Amino acid sequence: MYRMPEEIAVKVLVEGEVKEMSIKLERFEGTKVFQGGYRHRGTGRLFHHASTQFGQRERPVKNTDHLRTRDTQTCKIKTTTMQTTNECGTQMARKDMHLDDGCDTFKIAGEYRTAGEYWRVRERKTVTIQRFWRGFSARSRVWCRREEKWALEEKEMEEVAEEEGKRTQEKQREMQRRMNPSTVQDFEVLYNELDQWREAETKSIKQAEVGERRKLALRELLHKETRLLQTIDRLKITAAHEGKERRTRRMLELMSASKQWEMGDGEVSEIHTPWTNRARDLQDMYEALEAPLLSVEERLDVLLHLKWTVSEFDCRLTRDIAELVDREADLLSRGRGEASLRPLRQRIRNLFLRFAETPDFNPEASRFIRVPPKYGKLTDEGMVGLTGVVSCK
User: Fold this and answer.
1) Helices 338-356 and 274-290: crossing angle, nearest 10°?
2) Domain boundaries, the chain
3) CA–CA separation, 191 and 185 (whole Å)
4) Ranges for the IQ motif and ubiquitin-like domain (predicted)?
């Protein structure tokens, strides 16, 4: 608890010098009059207003001797005149005075209504307002319900159309799978349906025919089944050939694809290396070999470029390609037809594909080659067994 000291030291600036003076304090021993403030509930300490810190305020003494006299209790009246904005007055008509009534208007008082009638009219109008508001609210709710119903119907129609589209696409896909099968599952579906058809036809023949007619019908059924199996085998060969072509094209595209490197700032840059450029040239050459023949000169240009490309390496594969190229060029100069050159061109494409798939000629092919376990180390004996790899001596 703070206690005021009896003497304090004060530093005072006197004529440019700081002097320390001792001042005695007179402590107030009485009880301080509470003139407003608040008391702290926790500690019980009183906090007074600022006006209580400066001593008692002297209040003037009022003279109360004349409060109950006649002069004090007498009301004084003063008469004043004033000019209003609009002058008005009332004047009755007289015989000796002319009044201008040109601007006069007649006012008729309305029907007098009692308090009960007023409240009845007000209640009736309140009910009318409520009726209109409730009608508006009901129409709004009905309209919202209609919109929700329309949205639901539209959603259902879209779902039905989507389901119908999916069924149509599925039906077309199933038809495409049967007309142009390309996967193992497609051929499995064809074989299963053929087997079900054969069993159903056999059952119907056995139930309807007897004797020699049954044998003839079963023989005819066997011939139909054989023709269908031959058709499925031809489709399988075609699908295998197309699948091989797709895989080859995809492999060449991946070989010639650019390298993607992530830079320090997070951006990805595409970089072409000498190996990817080499793979891109070989891909263009393979596509040129597969392109349809437009003229003999264009084909000769392609063959000449192919021979220059493979002549960079001296091995059995490149020598075979160069020999076949010379043979086709000789046949073209003799005017042979395209049909007679088709097997030769196919052989050239196959050998060039082996050339493009060999890492010695196309370094990017090393990412796609499948090396057998016994050829893990490429020795002279192992290189002889690898397809397309020949020791260049």
Assistant:
1) 160
2) 180-252, 291-385
3) 10
4) 242-376
